[in-house]
Specification:
By secondary structure, the protein is mainly β. Among the domains are: about 250 residues, Jelly Rolls (Sandwich), CATH 2.60.120.200; about 150 residues, Exo-inulinase, domain 1 (Jelly Rolls). It is about 5% helix and about 45% strand. The protein has seven helices and 53 strands. The strands form ten sheets. Strands 1, 4, 5, 7, 12, 13, 14 and 18 form an eight-stranded antiparallel β-sheet that branches. It has an eight-stranded antiparallel β-sheet with strand order 2-3-6-15-8-9-10-11, with no helix packed on it. β46 and β47 form a beta hairpin. The two termini are about 40 Å apart.
């Protein structure tokens, strides 16, 4: 019994063994086989090339410990034959020194099974390499890979000519196994591509002067990464394969069409003659790989891996809340933006679903699915409005629409785009080329839908442009929704993104009062969430604020941005969502494997005096695991004694402090036992400000003050603080929040303490240990999320 089969018999069920034994290739089909990576290892950091009697290192971002314990690449137990290897799209590849690989020169065939998760943009026109050892500039070697939207290409160099064959019609599908075979025969100077056993494209050297043999390249053989790949921000490798790979073979001869067809059928025989379906937990990004990361939040909505920015388009339908987010499944950097998708019964316990919308090979949105919102159609069914990016169009941003493919699906996993843009920006309408983030609502009084799109006015600052429609497909333009004094408030920037407009109360005469939120961007902009309270003047179709001065919801510095919101049809509450920006650099995001998360859902309301109240939603109480402390009427010394053993990475803290004669008072969180690291949250009576001092948050990262004005009058300071690893969210007297981050370098920075410049009285204090959003990731994986 050979070593491969013996290892398989030990690790597989009887069904798996029988499947392997029946997956026999046609007689003589393995003639000329020089390399074969089965990707059946299941663990470890190397992959074996069986006929080549070699092993190759598998590069992976977590092969070494930096922000979390070292872990193996993402091997998968299932594949076309036994197991497979998941490539994460930015850090996974195999490499073999050129001296250890003999390039076939007279003929070559490459056979491989791939299941792409997504496709790159194609930086500098280069392939996302499946396997390659080439130098195009010198016309040497060979490359097999995929390109934008699933295009296939095989390329070879003779030293005198560079031959490329492309398949533009039969695109690789996402999340599905496909067999790709590429052949080149120097005798005919012809290269051919096969997909799932059928020839799909071929090309030949028209004038073979100088010879047709492949000239070997002196670069290393790479699997999953381009030989001369592009880089982003120095740390991120582009032109990478993203998805599953199995059964990679290289031959020193050109396989015939009959051999390729027979081999394809032989691979499928153990699967009943059909391409096997891939379990979602095998192909989708796996959050379990971040186990042990001290800084990754556990009860905040977060992408399974890689990059996310603002969450948006919340809605409630058939018992579930849905929330989408800007997501790059290629790596922890901005690019190729998809709409990630979460679903929840309570806006607290979110489950990650496959991306709802993504760039496709069309003229609507081939270059990105940027932010938008959700509404309901005339039948009460949800509709998504998004910014469709097409770099070949001018401008490249248009308003588009998508509907559920199956309205009876309780998760609404799949969405269908309307084939044409709804609104294309015309010259003279706003700031040309900045036209994005549609926010849509239905006015029940006049039975119309209204749409705000973020833009600006030349020389006059940001604005939102107003449209209306009777059917959601045909839209009439009405001009800028609100114009502010740009000279007086230059911090509101030249462009507004992510406008949100929601009813929040009523005036004494019964007229509706609204809250209007925007996120300024561009030169001179303070990128925060600003708002006004005011009226919707339907006669003029304009917003009329109660006061011209813009207000902040959150007092942090660039950690609470990207607003979206809805009126919850279940409860009538006004809920907003934001992105909680991290403040790591690119190198740290590369090593951590993820970037950013959502902030906690926040309820907005008005008190009796018409002042805005900002409070975390009540459902967050469901995260409470254990009450750690509960006391009242204590001075600092006694309070801190009671807090001595209260510590943890996930805490909810409620405290009311009577300042007495103190001028500065609050809490220290993320405290190490010796006080070497700590983050201070305090109120300054002299300046009426809520502040966070992060000068001692980390020994290795010195940061300063964040905060702003908070008028609490004669009230005691009432804080509700949520700590979730690196996340710190403080709600003060229900008037403002202060969101920030802490990345301590010490592992035991988990304590809390009362702090003041003079004696204070702790009127009441409670602390709870909180649970992760999903108690076990394995349970979620078993459900297919």
């Amino acid at each position: 019994m050979n070593s491969i089969l013996s290892r398989t018999l030990m690790g597989l069920s009887l069904v798996g063994v029988l499947g392997l034994l029946s997956a026999k290739l046609p007689q003589n089909s393995e003639k000329g086989l020089t390399s074969h990576w089965s990707f059946d290892e299941g663990k470890g950091k190397i992959a074996k090339d069986t006929p080549g009697h070699q092993t190759d290192s598998v590069h992976f971002v977590f092969n070494k410990a930096e922000f979390k314990p070292s872990s193996d690449p993402s091997w998968r137990a299932s594949g076309i034959v036994n197991g497979s290897l998941q490539f994460d799209g930015y850090s996974t590849w195999l490499e073999r020194p050129a001296a250890s690989f003999k390039t076939p020169t007279q003929a070559i065939s490459i056979s491989v099974w791939v299941a792409p998760r997504t496709f790159e943009h194609g930086a500098e026109g280069k392939l996302s390499a499946i396997v390659n050892q080439h130098n195009k500039g010198k016309m040497e070697g060979f490359a097999l890979g995929m390109f934008r939207h699933g295009r296939l290409s095989f390329q070879v160099g003779t030293g005198h000519q560079w031959l490329e064959v492309w398949e533009e019609k039969n695109l690789l599908p996402r999340n599905t196994w496909s067999q790709v075979v590429a052949t080149y025969d120097a005798a005919t100077a012809r290269a051919t591509l096969y997909l799932n056993g059928e020839k799909v494209a071929e090309n030949a050297i028209p004038n073979p002067a100088g010879g047709t043999s492949i000239r070997p390249s002196s670069v290393n053989l790479l699997i999953g990464k381009h030989n001369q790949n592009e880089k982003l921000a120095r740390y991120f490798d582009l032109n990478m394969f993203n998805g599953l790979m199995d059964e990679l073979k290289i031959y020193s001869r050109a396989l015939s069409a009959a051999e390729i067809r027979q081999a394809y059928q032989a691979y499928l025989k153990p699967h009943g003659g059909k391409i096997p379906e891939i379990r979602p937990q095998d192909i989708h990004l796996d959050p379990a790989q971040f186990a042990g990361d001290r800084h990754r939040p556990q009860f905040h909505a977060i992408a399974p891996a890689h990059w996310m920015n603002e969450p948006h388009a919340p809605f409630y339908f058939n018992g579930n809340y849905h929330l989408f987010y800007q997501h790059n499944p290629l790596g922890p950097y901005w690019g190729q933006i998809h709409w990630g998708h979460w679903v929840s019964p309570d806006m607290v316990h979110w489950k990650a679903l496959p991306p709802a919308l993504y760039p496709e090979n069309d003229t609507l949105s081939p270059d990105g699915i940027w932010s938008g919102s959700a509404s309901y159609d005339q039948n009460g069914e949800p509709v998504l409005f998004f910014t469709a990016a097409n770099d070949k169009a001018s401008p490249n941003q248009r308003v588009a629409l998508a509907r559920p493919k199956n309205i009876k699906d309780p998760m609404l996993v799949e969405w269908q785009k309307h084939p044409k843009p709804l609104i294309t920006q015309q010259k003279g309408v706003g700031l040309f080329g900045d036209f994005r983030d549609p926010f849509v609502w239905r006015d029940e009084d006049d039975k119309k839908w209204y749409l705000l799109n973020g833009s600006g006015l030349p020389g006059s600052g940001g604005t939102a442009l107003l449209y209306s429609s009777k059917d959601q497909l045909n839209w009439e333009y009405h001009g800028p929704f609100y114009q502010f004094n740009y000279q007086q408030y230059p911090n509101l920037g030249p462009i507004w993104e992510l406008p949100v407009f929601l009813p929040i109360g009523k005036y004494p005469n019964g007229e509706k009062k609204y809250i209007f939120l925007v996120s300024p961007v561009g030169k001179g902009a303070d990128v925060e969430v600003y708002y006004w309270l005011g009226r919707f003047d339907k006669s003029q179709l304009r917003f009329v604020p109660d006061g011209a001065t813009p207000q902040l919801i959150d007092l942090g510095d660039f950690h609470f941005t990207g607003p979206s919101g809805m009126v919850d049809p279940k409860t009538g509450r006004v809920i907003i969502f934001t992105i909680a920006q991290g403040n790591r650099n690119s190198r740290e995001e590369h090593a951590a494997g993820w970037a950013h998360n959502a902030g906690l859902p926040v309820q907005l309301s008005l008190n009796k005096e018409g002042r805005l109240l900002v409070e975390p939603i009540d459902e967050l109480k469901s995260l409470r695991k254990k009450e750690l402390v509960n006391f009242s009427g204590k001075k600092i010394l006694e309070a801190n004694r009671l807090l001595t053993d209260v510590k943890g990475p996930m805490l909810e803290i409620q405290v009311e402090i009577n300042p007495q004669q103190a001028q500065k008072f609050g809490l220290k969180v993320g405290c190490s036992p010796d006080g070497e690291e700590e983050t201070l949250i305090y109120y300054d009576k002299a300046t009426a400000s809520l502040m966070t001092d992060r000068s001692k948050t980390s020994k290795t990262r010195i940061q300063g003050l964040e905060g702003g004005k908070l008028d609490i009058g004669r009230e005691n300071l009432k804080l509700r603080i949520f700590l979730d690893h690196s996340m710190v969210e403080t709600y003060a007297n229900s008037y403002h929040s202060l969101t920030t981050r802490m990345y301590p370098s010490l592992a035991d920075t988990l304590g809390i303490k009362i702090w003041s410049d003079q004696e204070v009285l702790i009127e009441k204090m409670q602390v709870w240990e909180l649970k992760p959003m999903n108690e076990t990731q394995e349970a979620e994986k078993a459900k297919g999320f």
